[in-house]
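Hello again, I could really use a second opinion on something today. For a while now I've been wondering how a particular protein folds. Please have a think about how the structure follows from the sequence. Here's the protein in full, and shout if anything looks odd to you:

***
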Amino acid sequence: MAGRPIDHEHRAALLDAAVDHATEQVFAELSWRSVAAALGVSTTTLVHHFGTKEQMLAAILDRLRERLIAGSRDLAGEHADLATTARAFWTWSADERRWPTLRLFFAVYGQALQSPDAHAGFLGQVGSDWTAALRAAQGPDVDPDLASRRATLVVATLRGLLLDLLASGDRARVEDAAEAYLASL
């Protein structure tokens, strides 16, 4: 006997709500019950739409990554160069409205590094989207190895600056460092 079909629109809405909930929680403490209660659904509903808890958490991480990439990519615009794209990523990410999402991102990143087998999908994708966008921003005439090296440096530097900003809250100092770095591009 086949189960009821998945309503993909409802699943997407549940997933977005689950990500919003996760940004306000300790990721390691997310459970079926806590997510179900926050979303106003039963745990059975979550099982129906996501399968296992691990699949739900993986879906939350994928949506989180999608949000981070989509939000920052839209700011750069089409045909932006490396400096413009990097600045757009920084501007979007350093906005205090993004801090709950970035806190979740870094919490998950740390957990994934401790349990790489459990979070292989997240680790495999964590920097590839931004890196790809930054490589593309350098244009087709730039040596691919050089473009990849530059993109990797930009991602690593901005990620480090964001982590410092979140940890210290010292916006003036970190923004000054970010501006100096971005101006050098």
